[in-house]
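S., here's the first fold you wanted:
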Amino acid sequence: MKNKIITLTGNFRKEKFFDIINQIFEYFSNVKGYELLMTDEFLKDHSSKVLNNNINVNSFDICINKSDYIFSIGGDGTILSTIRKLSSRSVPVLGIHIGNLGFLAMSTEESLNKALDHIVANEYVIKDKVLLKTFKQSNPKEIYYSFNDVVIDHGNSGRVLKTIVSNHDEHINDYEGDGIIICTPTGSTAYSLSSGGPIVHSDLDVLTITPISSHSLSARPIVLSSDSNIKIKFSNSFIDASLTIDGQIRLNLNKDDTIIISKAKFYAKIIFMPYYSYIQTLKEKLHWSGNSR
């Protein structure tokens, strides 16, 4: 039977990254049927780190093309970056959080062996999660994918940004404020939530538009079908604007730019452990109190 291949990647700058790498290799040294790879981003700055001698290191693309699973080690931002780098390559991702449990991770360092037990026993679920596809209408070949959100804000200007937003060429609203957020259900607990957007269960197949610091009390978040094709233009009063992908890639925009945002044709595949509860995670991260009665 062919070995299952696991690629380890993540934020090598975090203090415990290499400890977790070695812990995973030590675990699988006693398990047959698995081969482990590691991406090589760490080599430039951390080649002297003590690693298991059996670690096979290669580029991200070479590792991913061989892999059955990806273990993304770091914080939620690391998992976002890993998913974005995968693009259309649908390899299931397990998030391993360094520190406290994040919204996107299934394991911490303390619960790692438990999670690996479930992987080996095939006691997990792989769920498809919505990704956003974003491009400028003037350059449709330069595409950006995001797992959480796309933010259009006033850039370096302190002035109000007016965005003209439509869906399938049907006008929705002219938003005046600091900008707007278009997010996936997974991203609804990120920037959108802090801007007054709704919490949308991550299993749903929808998109949300949330205004940022709107100058109109009537401008409210709206939840749309994931089949939406959102078009964003700017008014004649445009001074400056920026587009940010998952809080990690930032692009300057011009007055004549038209931004197109829709659901990607492929999904991110995320590994969920049998003990995971979306509601329990919300309660822990948002400090909700009270017990069921």
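And the second, which I think is the more interesting of the pair:
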Amino acid sequence: MGLFLTNTAFSSCTRYMSNITKSLDTVYKRLASGKRINSAKDDPAGFQIANRLTSQINGYKQGNRNINDGISYVQTMEGALDETVDMLQRIRTLAIQSANGTNSQADRNSINNQVSQLCEEITRIAKKTTFGGIPLLDGSRGDTHIQASGTAYDTIKIPDFSNGFTLSGLNTYLGGDENSDYVTKDGDVFRFTLSTAECSQNVLDNIDGFINAVTAYQGTLGGLQNRFESAIRLNGNMRVNLEDARSRIEDTDYAEEAQNLAQLNIQQQVCAMMMKQAAQSKNFILQLLQG
């Protein structure tokens, strides 16, 4: 067997030690970060797939935040319309009271003053109800679209009531005549009048249309809230499934990496011992020369 100055065994051990050290570095990164894929070089295809899944997951997260904003938006409108319906019901009750023949003119004037204040408040609510500065009930906002996920045009529409919920707007929507004897209009303020028993009967004959118009839109808002809650549940389910898929692709399998760590530590120690043994071959050559 030949004995050469070039120590090929030591070179091989050095190469193996370098490979083991690199493998250990990878294991340490995976154990420390909790990620199997820490850069594109770890798994180029898996890296791309995981990032696409992350985009979808982030879209569903933000979509749920958007939908919750939409629920608050709709609830703001519904709360204001609740007050509008309550006041319309009160006007209806006062019309029944005013239509009664036992009331004097002074009684009807007193009732009419109360109705006038209620009418002005209904108009004020319609004009001043806002959400983050956006007017909601005056008919000027147009349809509102809630972005429900990270997919383009995946929206839920909140329809506008284009006539608005002022009494004048509701009267226009119902095709009413603003010159009727039971209504008065001062600028943009529309009022019912109960100044006579006949006017009171006319108000009673028409007020249900106003109430029905408002409550019909409230029904639409209620249906939208149910739809929003369903969309939130769907987004949550999609998010969980996608996070599970992403986890299988990019997360560290700690059982596997712990096994790799133990194996590589043993190999590193053995390799270090072999390098020490291989280094002694040069000393043997010197011993022969010193003979």
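Why I say that: The mean pLDDT is 87. The first helix runs from residue 8 to 33.

Talk tomorrow,
H.
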